[in-house]
Design a protein that fits this description.
2 copies of one chain form a homodimer. Chain A is α/β, with parallel strands linked by helices and 616 residues long. Chain A folds into 5 domains: 92 residues, Ubiquitin-like (UB roll), CATH 3.10.20; 64 residues, Ubiquitin-like (UB roll), CATH 3.10.20.880; 139 residues, Domain of unknown function (DUF4445) (Nucleotidyltransferase, domain 5), CATH 3.30.420.480; 144 residues, Nucleotidyltransferase, domain 5; 108 residues, no CATH class. In chain A, 28% of the residues lie in helices and 24% in strands. Chain A is built from 16 helices and 26 strands. In chain A, the strands form 6 sheets. The first copy, chain A, has a 6-stranded mixed beta sheet with strand order 11-10-9-12-14-13, sandwiched between helices. A 6-stranded mixed beta sheet of chain A has the order 25-24-15-16-17-26. In chain A, a hairpin with a 5-residue loop joins strand 10 and strand 11. In chain A, helix 9 packs across helix 14, helix 9 packs across helix 15 and helix 12 packs across helix 16. About 3% of the residues of chain A have low confidence. The interface between A and B is large, with 49 and 49 residues.
């Protein structure tokens, strides 16, 4: 019974998701594109994610008992970060619990264990220095060193110091990055110490503001990566960067300006000063990171896809065009290979997968599927060119997961659709593509070879609602997800034979990649103890359906497949808040063996095999 | 007899100097303002300082025997860096042995032992990297690290790398500063590796170009410090820097532009590329260094005269406005106190005085007299405000040591003058002031209390030539150095009673400072094993006369008083060529006890006593 998904209905939006019992409400809400506020990171202490439930859920946790009295609990008040679903349930989400404008971007890591203790690279310390006097003419620099230890004072610091010390009557807060003095701020500003984590997605930029004294999330913001106007995917941006004299600079500047604007949003939301942010950690795929840093990505566009950077890059934030403290630091994640970038390193860091006892797989499903295997004390990573099918591209009525997209397809006696924004559908996004294919396979309308059956080939016991949707497009069988009368365009939303071929390619690439990594480690899929799903898209797919079409290994109990949310952002947070986190990131990048699937002859065989959907 | 100076006549200029037997010709030439070329630093191997002598000099050294055959030696060919004076001698200096346009600035350290082995901070190494290939997709950064070791690649390096590696077909010269990659130059440029040392004098800027692969001096250049137009002395520039919004920046920029122009002269003279210079070391007094770095010097202008910088400052050369290699480094010397600056640290470093077995004194005679004592394993340093008398200021007919200045006064039966440029005199410079006072004291025309005798008080046996020169100015006795008919102005060049009072103040300040430092160490002047004279001016004074007026301790054998030339430049050279040199400089600055004379009550008593000239 544990294997049966139950419906969770969110009000007032009416959005419904189907989840396994035991799923936390916060995760279920994310599946319905409802991102709840959780500045405490899911610790159950801030009370920001409070909801009112009617239906079956687990007993209140100690954190909930501290937050609510008996009357409130009886009335259904719960914390979404604490409560798990037990059966069908309705959840009333107050507006105050919603994260403002987080639309389709899941920019919070859900259920991620802390990757490293709080140990920021920048330290602040209030000191009162003895002012110079007759008999004490020690240089300003030495006076500071005596108080805070042997820090280096570079030119900028020594230029700043004489004025600052005298303005503050020799009392202020020394800001250091561990070995250099960055500033001497008037008064005691120890408590104003912030950091920013940035996830540079190819499509979406997300950023979180962190309190470096507590580790708390203070605000999250996201927006479209403006580089998309120069090309949707990594390769087209590489071409753009190389094609014109200032293409690289144009790309760099557009992303920098957008991230800088995000920082502005964050500081405005949290009501803090920009110059109290001292560190920014940036995570993205190799090309996004190079473009953001203004590093020529040409060698990433051709075999053997060579990155310029390997280890993480420490620099001044202003060198990247970011306006935080004038001496604030930036850290760009280390990369493993041309297509296994800082976001993957961040994912390994954030999921703490190397602390798992048994073989563990991390899969980031997207245009490039990144796959990491932790087994036998070793990390191996590969990327496969899954193509843009999961993001809705090359799918006739495909679209991104935005308003009007069918995001879920369930056959429950008849076909049911979930549409983002609860409007008439205009297309389908990746998760619905997987759902639809899984259901069609399950009901025998689609063969394991990927052929959509024609009307006259349909199995006799097929549900009438499905049989009625068999159609044709371009001379080949097609499937009507939504008839013309029910859509927002006045035309039907179709799933074509060609769409299913694209899905086969995308699925096959990831499946083959997983198979190769497992094979090199001498493992079978059922040996996996845990499968971690990373990335914004991964969060919206239904595990069961992903397994049905072979995208995820079938013979794994579903509770061992865990959604990890935006692990790129979560890893960036760990790096922004912790020197240990950065050291771990460097160790991860160095230790991970990069498997180049394109040169592995076994991959091509595995890819061909993996194009076949599993038997129902 | 050793104590008697002998005449050395230089041809074709006819300039004459009087030196002690044993003095090297190079040093004697410097005393005559003739700066000989010596790219090998006086090692006797380059042959650039060859001269032809007639008269008494020591036997040829092994280096000279290697350089010249018997016929050449018999014909008088010698190396000025090797040969010492034994008796009266005439030296013919070929034009080819002269250092071009070194005019009044002694910008070479004469007889300075190498302060540190060749060990430049920047390293160059030619490498051939394996280009990327299928199966070898290591990042560019990692490829370089594999070849040259664990260097850090900062943003600028990673931006540069992809293009450079591919332009050079992965073969080139890695330039590092020990821990960071600065460049990857096409081809093998290991032999093109240069450094520059800069002496930031209050009045004069001097710079030397060094070959960092051999340690050789390649060229030297000097010019007036353009900051003099904002004020002659340190204090007036501090006032200027603070008085206007952009005064500091104006001062900084003018010195930076002048030093940058000097670097241009040096590279043109040596025929090398500016971007093959990777390091610049800068030495000057505390205020000059702060102004050069753009660091507010206000606190240096008021009690207790606090510097901003203590330890040496490492930065990018371009941050200081210097155009060498774009990633080239600069090092600014550490300072000891507000008036004991990087030039003093450089002097201690260059003279290697801490390697002397017995108590050793280093004296830099100028507007500020800097005094360093090495005794009992300890360094103590002080500065005294001698005032500008030695530089010709506040002296009625005083002038700097330039054309037309009487630079030497000798009484040899009658008064003889040496005039710079062999023209009719227009004034006198500091060395002549000391000479004149010493001769007047010696011949009884000046009392130890500093009173110039009137015509009717003169001793009966006085040389007639001196007696005839007794005159009056402003109602007080004066002395005619050159009568109106023999001068370039048509007016007499006089030495007035007031001039002698200024000299008493200047001499007394330095003498008192020396006395205090010695007293604190429990030493008497005769305990000194060595007295080292530093600075451009110090090089031109006659030891005997400086002792006669009490400027230098009297009871020290004259050969223990050694000229060291421009030790600020020599120390900067050691820092430019050697990491060990820089570490030593830091150690020196840290270890030297700064004695603040202005707060020492004993100083004022000693100063009053020291105003009295020693008895003849």
């Amino acid at each position: 019974m544990l294997d049966t998904e139950v419906a969770v209905v969110f009000q007032p939006s009416g959005r419904t998701v189907y989840v396994l019992p035991g799923t936390r409400l916060l995760e279920a809400a994310a599946g319905a594109d409802i991102v709840l506020d959780q500045p405490c990171g899911g610790a159950g202490v801030c009370g920001k994610c409070r909801v009112r439930v009617a239906g079956e859920c687990c007993s209140p946790t100690p954190a909930e008992r501290r937050m609510f009295d008996e009357g409130e609990l009886a009335g259904g008040l719960r914390l979404a970060c604490q409560t798990s679903v037990c059966g069908p349930i309705t959840v009333d989400v107050p507006e105050t619990s919603l994260l403002a404008d987080a639309h389709q971007i899941l920019d919070r890591a859900v259920g991620t264990p802390p990757a490293a203790a709080l140990d920021p690279g920048v330290c602040k310390r209030y000191v009162e220095l003895p002012p110079p006097a007759r008999g004490d003419d020690a240089p300003d620099a030495v006076r500071v060193q005596r108080a805070i230890g042997p820090v280096e004072l570079d030119l900028a610091a020594v230029r700043l110091l004489p004025g600052r010390l005298r303005e503050t009557a020799f009392r202020g807060t020394a800001v250091t990055d561990g070995h250099r003095l960055l500033d001497f701020e008037p008064g005691n500003t120890e408590s104003e110490h912030f950091a920013v984590a940035v996830d540079l997605g190819t499509t979406t930029l997300a950023a979180a503001l962190l309190d470096a004294t507590t580790g708390d999330d203070l605000a999250v913001a996201a927006r479209l990566n403006p580089q998309t106007r120069f090309g949707d995917d990594v390769l087209s941006r590489i071409v753009y960067a190389g094609g014109r004299g200032d293409g690289l600079e144009e790309l760099r500047r557009s992303a920098a300006a957008a991230v800088d604007a995000l920082i502005g949003e964050l500081t405005a939301a949290a009501g803090i000063r920009r110059d109290r942010i001292y560190e920014v950690a940036v995570s993205g795929n190799t090309t996004m990171q190079q473009l953001f840093c203004g590093i020529d990505p040409a060698a990433l566009g051709a075999v053997p896809f060579v990155p310029a950077m390997g280890p993480g890059l420490g620099c001044e934030a202003r060198e990247l065009g970011l306006h935080i403290h004038t001496r604030g630091r930036a850290y760009v994640m280390p990369v493993i290979g041309g297509f296994v970038g800082g976001d993957t390193v961040a994912g390994i860091l954030a999921t703490a997968m190397t602390e798992e006892a048994g073989p563990t797989l991390l899969v980031d499903i997207g245009t490039n599927g990144e796959i990491v295997l932790w087994a036998g004390g070793k990390l191996t990573a590969a990327s496969t060119a899954a193509g843009p099918a999961f993001e809705g591209a090359r799918i006739m009525h495909g679209m991104r997961g935005s308003t009007g997209a069918i995001e879920k397809v369930v056959v429950d006696g008849r076909l049911r659709l979930n549409v983002i924004g609860a409007v008439p559908p205009v297309g389908l996004c990746g998760s619905a593509l997987i759902d639809a294919a899984a259901e069609l396979l399950h009901h025998g309308m689609l063969t394991p070879q990927g052929r959509l059956l024609d009307r006259d080939e349909l199995p006799p016991a097929l549900l009438p609602d499905l049989a009625e949707r068999a159609a044709h497009y371009d001379g080949k069988p097609a499937f009507v997800l939504a008839p013309a009368g029910e859509t927002g365009t006045g035309k039907p939303v179709l799933l074509t034979q060609r769409d299913l071929r694209e899905l086969q390619l995308a699925t096959g690439a990831i499946r083959a990649g997983i198979r190769i990594l497992l094979g090199r480690a001498g493992l079978a899929p059922e040996d996996l103890q845990t499968v971690l799903i990373a990335g914004g898209f991964g969060n919206f797919i239904r595990r069961k359906n992903a397994q049905r079409i072979g995208l995820l290994p079938r013979r794994i109990e579903r509770h061992r497949i865990r959604y990890q949310g935006n692990t790129s952002l979560a890893g960036a947070k760990a790096a922004a808040l912790s020197r240990l986190g950065r050291r771990r990131a460097e160790d991860i990048a160095q230790a991970t063996e990069h498997v180049d699937l394109s040169t592995d002859p076994a991959f091509h065989t595995a890819f061909a095999d993996s194009m076949i959907f599993p038997e129902a």
